[in-house]
Each structure stands twice: as structure tokens, then as C-alpha cells.
Amino acid sequence: MPSSISWGLLLLAGLCCLVPGSLGDTTQDTEESKHEHDQHPACHKIAPNLVDFAFSMYHQVAQKSNTTNIFFSPVSIAVAFALLSTGAKSDTHKQILEALKFNLTDTREAQIQEGFQHLLHTLNQPNSQLQLTTGNGIFVNQSLKLVEKFLEDSKKLYHSEAFSVNFKDSAATKKLINDYVEKGTQGKIVDLIKELDEDTVLALVNFIFFRGKWKKPFEEEHTEDGGFHVDETTTVTVPMMSRLGMFNVHYHTELSSWVLLMEYLGNATAIFILPEQGKLRQVEDQLTQKTLSTWLEDRYPRSASVSLPKLSISGTYDLVEIMGKLGMTHVFSNAANLSGITEMAPLKVSKAVHKAMLTIDERGTEAAGATVLEAIPMSMPPTVSFNRPFLLIIHSKETKSPLFIGRVGNPLQK
Ligand SMILES: *[C@@H]1O[C@H](CO)[C@@H](O)[C@H](O)[C@H]1NC(C)=O
Ligand SMILES: *[C@@H]1O[C@H](CO)[C@@H](O)[C@H](O)[C@H]1NC(C)=O
Ligand SMILES: *[C@@H]1O[C@H](CO)[C@@H](O)[C@H](O)[C@H]1NC(C)=O
Ligand SMILES: *[C@@H]1O[C@H](CO)[C@@H](O)[C@H](O)[C@H]1NC(C)=O
Ligand SMILES: *[C@@H]1O[C@H](CO)[C@@H](O)[C@H](O)[C@H]1NC(C)=O
Predict the structure, then answer these.
(1) What span is annotated as the signal peptide, if there is one (predicted)?
(2) Half-sphere exposure of 43 (CA within 13 A, CB side)
(3) What pTM value is reported for the model?
(4) Phi-psi bin for 40: left (phi > 0), alpha (psi -120 to 50), beta?
(5) I want to staple 247 with a disulfide (CB 3.0 to 4.6 A). Which of 23, 40, 127, 374 is the partner?
(6) Which tens digits make up the pLDDT trace of 47-88?
(7) CA neighbor of 138 nearest in space, from 164, 119, 113, 176
(8) How far is the CA of 66 from the centre of ligand 1 (A)?
(9) Distance 76 CA to ligand 4 centre (A)
(10) Is the pLDDT of residue 143 over 80?
(11) Which letter does DSSP use for residue 380 in this model?
(12) Which ligand is nearest to the Cα of residue 105, counting in written order?
């Protein structure tokens, strides 16, 4: 066993700004999905694995507390580890891909890498309606020589940028990394790293930035303070946006939950799941890939009165612990084989952090002409109020991947 182990660092940041509005109609979506079935782009092959991974990680995080907010980006985390896997060998390599829920018996590594390449390419397409950017930065200590193939692959497949830095000067390097993340998330995630070890030789940083606008916006003047029932005994006051109109909403009997789909301009959908009071845990345990695809395929347009809290929450996660529970241990230990990244020194990942933020508020909408008038049937429409803990998933239609997943337990908890 070598006497000195060099340290690598993995940092991930996700940011999601949701701008309120209202539900879109679904006719166009059906056309889009028909179209997609003919093509099967490479990223659709890895989509089921990403959903699987999203729920596995969600379950790990949710187990720790029944009440805290949860918010993370499965896509961001998977992309960063998939990039790391290109420089990992033997068991280290296998563990990374297996924790991301790939079965290496029936999926070729090349297929996986093609899938991620296509995923990143698609997500980073300029889109005038939806702002979505992801990036990977590799910060390498001046003393370290990287394997040429790793640099090429990460540039070609993962659109990554490499920076040569001096980790001994940890203050300057910390600033460089934090600035990179701040710039990538348009100023929303600042000071991602607080401490930086001088022994670090490599930092891998991934970020994702998403800003969506609802197809049809809520009206600001309808936003009023209301009670949010955190649990049976605690109620907090939060601004609730509301709208009476056409929504894709239905009651899922097996899960005792209302399920609401709201479309963004561009190709993303938000799925809100509102369990009956006290049933949240049960619903979390039952979330599966199959339920999710059913929700996305079966549409239930109907008139309803919907209210949603205006909020801003964030989640910060130690991935060494979480990924460890999903079976990824070698890469964080002295058994790590990252010889595909550098042959000069034994390297392990000492720290892996993910931070994601969610904002649902009025700011950011282009106010002009946003009001949509719709015919409402004469019968009394149901009222669906997200005034108790709920779950949400932000799904990218084009890549069929889960951009973000979360739980709102208390909108006031930062
Ligand atoms: C969460 O709720 C479940 C079921 O209600 C309970 O068994 C479990 O102990 C709770 N977990 C925590 C961390 O409070
Ligand atoms: C890492 O894995 C490669 C390929 O399997 C092997 O040749 C090399 O000896 C391993 N290095 C270490 C330090 O275990
Ligand atoms: C992986 O796929 C093979 C072949 O399809 C299957 O036999 C095996 O059970 C799968 N492994 C896991 C862990 O799902
Ligand atoms: C990082 O690079 C600097 C400058 O080349 C060097 O002084 C330092 O020892 C290196 N750090 C490690 C942990 O190798
Ligand atoms: C939405 O996705 C479809 C294909 O799935 C694509 O043709 C279309 O250009 C995308 N729309 C936007 C605004 O990116």
C-alpha cells in the first residue's frame, strides 16, 4: 500500500428556479411523445437507470428524517460520477456504475457513455423558452499530470473544462472553484466550499442551472397568505399562489395522493404529489419508475382550483455517505483505483458535496400578456391545495430524465 494517498474532491451544485404560472394543455405533448418513440436517442437508454438511481438516493436521504425538506439533482450527480468512472479501473469502476443503477451484464460501457454524452448535449442545447445549463469543471493541482485520454474523454463526452491550480494556496483555489460554480448557477449558489484541504490534488465540480416558466402563469394578485400544515400540530403561514382553470390533475387512489402535472415552456414538466396528511412516508416508499411513467403518459385534463406555496428551499448532501450506502465505497477509500485519471499518485475522492436550490416564485416571469382565459364548466371544480408536505419531480421530456427530485416538508425551512 502506498504511503501517501492524494486527495480528490467532488463538488456538485444544482439549481432550480421555478417560476409560477399554470398548466399547459396536453394535445401538443402527445404529438411530441409519439414522435420520440420512433427515434430512441442514446440518452433514452440510460433514462430508466437515472430514474432508478434518483429514487434509490431519495430513499436513502428520506430515511434520515421524515420531516426535512429534500432537494437534489439526480442528473447532476449521475453525470459527475459517470465522468469520474471514465478514469476509474477494476472494482472502483464497477462500483460507481452499479451505484448509478447500471447493470454491466446487459449494458455495455460504451452505451452508457454514449447515453451521457447525448444527455449532456441535449440538455445544453440553447432553448429560448427554458434555461438549462450544466457544466463540469476539473481543477487539477499543478504538480499532477493527468492521463491524456481522461482529459480528452472528459472534454469530448462531458463538455468539461480543465483548470490548473495550486491547492497549497487554498484560499485562492477555493475562490476560483466557488466563482466557477457561482458563474455557472448565475449567482445563485455562492460559497459552495467552505474549507479546502491543502493536500487536495483534484476537484471535480458539476453544476446544473434550470429556470423554467410555466406555460400559463399564476396571477400575482391572487397570491395570499395561507396556512401550511407541517404536521398534525404545526402550521406555518406562507404565501400561496392560486388559480382556477384547466389542470392536469387526478387523485391516485392507491397512493392516496393528488397528482398534478404542470408544464414549463420548453420541454420540462413538474410533477407534484400531494399525499393525505400522515401518508407521505407510505407514498415515498411506493414511488417507482412505473408509477412515474404512468403519470407522464396518462393525462387528466380537468378544471380545478389549485394552490401552491411560493417558496425557496435547498438541500446539501454529503455524497460520500449516501453513495457509500448505495454500494460505492472504493472510490472514497485507499482501495480506490483512479489510475485512468493519473498514474503519478494514488488518488481517492476525499469529499463529495452536492447542493441544490429550488425557487418557486413570481419573479422572473415576463409579465406581459401572460394571462390566459379558459372556459370553466358550470359544475363545482375540486380544490387541490398544496398546504401540507408534498413531493415534486422535475422531468426533462426530451431526455426522459429526472432533473430534480424533492420533498417540501416545511416551506419556511431553508
Ligand atoms: C419515519 O416514519 C416512519 C413511519 O411512520 C417511522 O417508522 C420512522 O421511525 C420515522 N423515522 C424517523 C427518522 O423519524
Ligand atoms: C488499477 O487497475 C488497473 C487495471 O485493472 C491495474 O492494471 C492496476 O494495477 C490497478 N492499480 C492499482 C493501484 O491497484
Ligand atoms: C443484470 O442483467 C442480467 C442479464 O439481463 C441479469 O441476469 C442480472 O440478474 C442483472 N443483475 C442485476 C443486479 O440486476
Ligand atoms: C500542488 O502543487 C504545488 C505547486 O506545484 C506543490 O507545491 C504542492 O506540493 C502540490 N500539492 C500536492 C498535494 O501534491
Ligand atoms: C422539445 O423536444 C422536441 C423533441 O422531443 C424538439 O423537437 C423540440 O424542438 C423541443 N422544443 C424546444 C423548445 O426545445
Answers:
(1) 1-24
(2) 20
(3) 0.87
(4) left
(5) 23
(6) 999 999 999 999 999 999 888 999 999 998 999 899 999 999
(7) 164
(8) 6
(9) 29
(10) yes
(11) P
(12) 3
